[in-house]
Write a structure and sequence with these properties.
Layout: H1 26-32, E1 38-47, E2 50-59, E3 68-80, E4 83-86
Antiparallel strand pairs: 1-2, 2-3, 3-4
């Protein structure tokens, strides 16, 4: 049986990840919008001072043992000087059927 050469593996060091420094304070997020059965809010930094805000709500259906969660409201905003500006594009109105 021919001898097989074992491959040598180099140990790879993980790279340090620097977290995004820009965040919106929790108090400001809670003042911006409210949803029924509020669960949590996600503020995701998209570019520069623009954020995607997702407001989650907890939905309890009859006949189910476990609650489900859904995004109740979502906004594209700009955060500048402690103030949130809504930049969400409004949905287009669909023409009525003729």
């Amino acid at each position: 049986m021919p001898a097989t050469k074992k491959k040598s593996f180099r140990k790879v060091e993980p790279e340090a990840v620097t977290p995004i420094g820009k965040t919106i304070p929790e108090e400001t997020l809670m003042e911006f919008a409210s949803v029924p059965y509020f669960y949590k809010v996600d503020a995701i930094n998209v570019t520069g001072n623009k954020f995607r805000l997702n407001y989650w709500s907890k939905v309890i259906n009859e006949g189910r043992l476990i609650a489900s969660f859904r995004i109740a409201k979502s906004f594209y905003v700009e955060y500048e000087g402690g103030v949130i500006f809504d930049c969400t594009i409004p949905p287009k109105e669909k023409p009525a059927n003729k």
